[in-house]
Queue: 2 jobs
Job 1
Amino acid sequence: MRVNFTVNGRKQEVDDVWEGESLLYVLRERMGFPGSKNACEQGECGSCTVRLDGVPVCSCLVAAGQAEGRQVVTVEGLADYARHREDAHPGTGCATGACGTPLGTARSRQAGDGQGTEELSPIQQAFIDAGAVQCGFCTPGLLVAADELLETQPSPSDQDIREALSGNLCRCTGYEKILDAVRLAAARQEEAVR
Amino acid sequence: MDFLRPASWEEALAAKAEHPTAVPIAGGTDVMVEINFDHRRPEHLLDLNRIGELSEWQTGPDTVRLGASVPYSAIMENLRTELPGLALASHTVASPQIRNRGGVGGNLGTASPAGDAHPALLAAGAEVEAESVRGTRMIPIDAFYTGVKRNALAPDELIRAVHIKKADGPQQFSKVGTRNAMVIAVCAFGLALHPGTRTVRTGIGSAAPTPVRAEAAEEFLNAALDEGGFWENGKIITPSVAKQFAQLASGACSPIDDVRGTAAYRRHAVGVMARRTLGWTWEQYRDTGRTLEGAA
Ligand SMILES: Cc1cc2nc3c(=O)[nH]c(=O)nc-3n(C[C@H](O)[C@H](O)[C@H](O)COP(=O)(O)OP(=O)(O)OC[C@H]3O[C@@H](n4cnc5c(N)ncnc54)[C@H](O)[C@@H]3O)c2cc1C
Ligand code: FES
Ligand code: FES
């Protein structure tokens, strides 16, 4: 079947999708967005987390056909998404990701365009600065989940952070540096608002 | 495989009538796991995501009519006052990502004895609004679970909503698992005080082939509270009464040994949860329930 939806602000049309296929499979294997990771395919690890109409979900549990007509943001589009949020909705956020302004004015972050050097989102930068990335397999899902947390709760408590990231597993870091990274991004965000 | 995408409830019913073996998919948090692991290869998937009304709820004088696809996160956020037991139970489901997609309709569809909505629904009192092209029927929650992962739906029926009694007193939900997030219940217990009718209702999860109420325990407790005038005098429940209640709740279980726990542990833990949830809710009733009721 054919599925039409928007990925990182860009309309996409995908053909020959099998009806039982997951959104994760379509993103990775049919569209060349390998950012979202496939570890468990059963909702346990969160490494496939994307925003679906603004809502963080496990893309391995969304049937591709359910994404028809909807907005998806993956880690590849996170920097543009965050920039758009700052530009168009300073201090608040575009909760749906569907407010009408083209994301990053059509700046393509599709894998393969070789332009991996653009600016990172604040949460991505904080993960690097805090040393929250080891093997990196869990990182894309954590980034998408953490970015959404900071969008909805700009000054999260430690409890809020733990709760928001409770659906994302990491086998390397022991989580402490990940918590540090989120605290760092939150602090920088507060600084910027002040 | 065919992917059916009805745009309205009527279209969905027509599709289900035409293809009774079609598998409805709402949040997909049960269905997609089965498909990803090739445990299930349905001929038709029936996507319910486009039917907006399934994600809505209406609050009436006595009940909340909860659309089948209202996600757990929305229940936690918006229905804590009306449905405290279900909101607590929702919060224990999996992770934020799963709670953003999964809902009570899917939990009822799967009808796993470990589903966390069930003890809360049994304790609060609820009816399932099931509909087909043949018409609508209201299935009392006590009659909904018919066997291990079996429910009372006919092949051509879909769940449109669940009508849940609004809380008229304190409610609690307790769940045993190895961590707070992402845990299938070893066993779970829901309890609701209903001061309006001077009754207590319960629900047990993961300790019998289906979710069940601890009926003998309820009957014993209702009689004991009545006899002692507890609802009126608001005294602390006598320890021997609480103990007997816990034992009878344990007795309502018919658990199995499995990877998550032994039958003996489940029986024991259900008793402990019964005593604790009774203690918590009764404390709350003593603090607020009676004055609130008097003021209303
Ligand atoms: C990682 C993970 C952790 C989980 N942890 C928990 C947990 O802690 N507690 C818990 O209770 N559950 C848990 N689950 C199971 C699942 O999330 C719940 O059962 C959830 O309520 C299912 O809802 P859904 O909308 O995603 O259902 P779906 O997967 O879309 O559907 C589930 C079943 O219900 C049927 N169905 C759906 N909607 C309807 C309808 N309107 N009418 C008729 N049939 C319908 C479907 O055909 C299917 O058989 C977990 C799942 C995963 C993947
Ligand atoms: S791959 Fe989706 S949650 Fe693990
Ligand atoms: S950094 Fe390796 S799994 Fe998290």
Job 2
Amino acid sequence: MSSIPHDHAAGGHEHEHAHYPGGIMRWITTTNHKDIGTMYLWFSFTMFLVGGVMALTIRAELFQPGLQVVHPEFFNQLTSLHGLIMVFGAIMPAAVGFANWMIPMLIGAPDMAFARMNNWSFWLLPPAGIMLVGSLFVPGGAVSAGWTLYPPLTIQNGMGMDLAIFAIHIMGASSIMGSINIITTILNLRAPGMTLMKMPLFCWTWLITAYLLIAVMPVLAGAVTMLLTDRHFGTSFFNAAGGGDPVLFQHIFWFFGHPEVYIIIMPAFGIISEIIPVYSRKPLFGYASMVYAVAGIAILSFIVWAHHMFTVGMPTAGLLFYMYATMLIAVPTGVKVFNWLATMWRGAITFETPMLFALGFLFLFTLGGFTGLVLAIMPVDIQIHDTYYVVAHFHYVMVAGSLFAFFGGVYHWIPKWTGTMYSEKLGRIHFWLSLVFFNVAFFPQHFLGLAGMPRRIPDYATQFTDWNMVSSIGAFGFGISQFVFLWAVIKCIRGDGAKAPAKPWEGATTLEWTLPSPAPYHTFETPPVVK
Amino acid sequence: MTTRDAGPALRADNRSILARLVVVAAAMFAFGYALVPFYEKICQVTGLRDIDRPAEVRNTQVDASRNVRIELDANTRGLPWTFRPLVATIDVHPGALTQVDFEIVNPTDRPVTGQAIPSYLPRNASEYFRKLDCFCFSTQTLQAGERRRMPVVFVLDPELPADVPVVTLSYTFFEVEGGPSARAASGRDNGSAARGS
Ligand code: HEM
Ligand SMILES: [Cu+2]
């Protein structure tokens, strides 16, 4: 998503720094936050398409009952890899891509604090992605126990599982390095006058996300290392025969896993908090309470993990604790939703594509939050755990939540990135197609789940046929709609569209809009002064 | 004020944040491992996984009014023994002290150590199946060609719901690599896939 022009006449005095090797070497050696942000976003989009092809293969198999398209073993590999690739390959790198592009510009910094490490964090990702996808082709195939990697199955899987473990190690290292960079940048490189409580909210959500990542990625690394040594080096952490306990893995995994879902959503919260005030032409309502809400969510996210384990057996006191703690998280989340609504209240709203995605996010994420609350009711969850209801829940929060926010963010900032306005027509088409097909694909999964259809199974009882057909149609529609997005982005990069002014959005107030469009290769070498 | 020509003070400050965060990451990696003994402790304190210890028998009232059929099942996984119960089924009154016997044979010409893991059907019958003695409480090492008879002494808790007429007790022997010392040294409870905690 970049077309950094070679001549920087518009960049004023900053052009003398803009020399870099030509061709591929520019990208391999770059330490520029904008280049690295661009690479993160393209990597993410590529993985999104790869994971998407897997999802569509799954939906093709589930179009009808019976087995038509793939073998059940392969189906299991697809569901597992789809989850891993979308979480670690698509959503998380996209969020880091936004952080790289935007955080320095939002706080008036010249670049990330550790520019060389930034390059390493990115270049760790492609090998990890290749390992995950490549694991499909090794003897025994890829990991097939679901993205949650539960033993004993993952102790029995073939070498595809080892590749997945290494891929997770590498991606974890990448995330930790990226997080250290983001924290240091935010703490040390803010422009004079940019106090923490004046930072755009996107910086706040990423600051807290980065701390969460540093706290939980190592725990996941530990869990998969234990799986690895159980598999090959005779330890028995999870192996019942040697005195271990498979349930222990679930505890460690979800100690990582629940904070992880907030790692996925909080950068999206940040983007939405940037978009809504701009197109409502009002400052964000309740800035300070937004910051505290994010911090509250982050802290609470460490004490709710066992809501993923209501059915494995726990003392009643534990069940009740995790149930109420989970419901408590809805309070700060509700504060955020309320503040976004209050920001729009009596605003002079216009509905450009970023705002459309933000509104789509608001409705659908909230719906996903409500289904989360339903799942948090322990006696209910015991009925619908591991059904399609859960699948519907997390796709509402991750696709209509995070992904929609990222789409909105791309449309919002792409004039700054490329210097060209996106086509409003294509943006709208992309939004409406995504919105409609998303709901066609995922809304019926609530019904399927409530009726008892289990997740991760390639075949199903015939009474589930109709809604599965609807869901598959929606999924294919959603997948194909994403090419509209690709087209809209490519048009901007090729300069095919109106030239973007420095501040294309009337209501925009943050620092990046004081820079020319496209943003010069080096920005804020002399820090701006924030009043 | 760019990173490239950042002042040494800023650079030192950046590095100190880096160092502190790396320590946090390393500590969290260790924390993941620390969850293992922590979990064991919780299970021990709450009595969730005490399946390799004699159970307490609270209620010794024999309920002669009903019979529960106990089905016995024996399996091995990854170790070369033959393993069987001496009787396949037995009818007991809840509350009555009962002994059943199993037999293992090591037909190979080397000593082998194994650990038996119990599981129950229906799953929640495990709470009512109180074992006072069991070969599954410790590892078993069989010399080459050795044959061993092993008892299980149990009481079926009379609280067992009346709608459970049959309880299946199934054992699977797993090989313990490295012999008995490996387990003794770890001093850990037997986990059970059948009974999560
Ligand atoms: C109000 C907030 C939320 C509540 C109360 C909530 C509650 C829950 C509960 C109870 C489950 C377990 C369901 C089961 O397995 O039976 C669950 C699953 C899940 N949630 Fe949420 N959730 C919330 C928000 C989110 C957000 C923001 C995300 C991510 C962006 C998310 C992602 C997931 C995922 C990925 C799973 C399924 C994991 C799996 O088993 O594969 N949730 N949620
Ligand atoms: Cu959760």
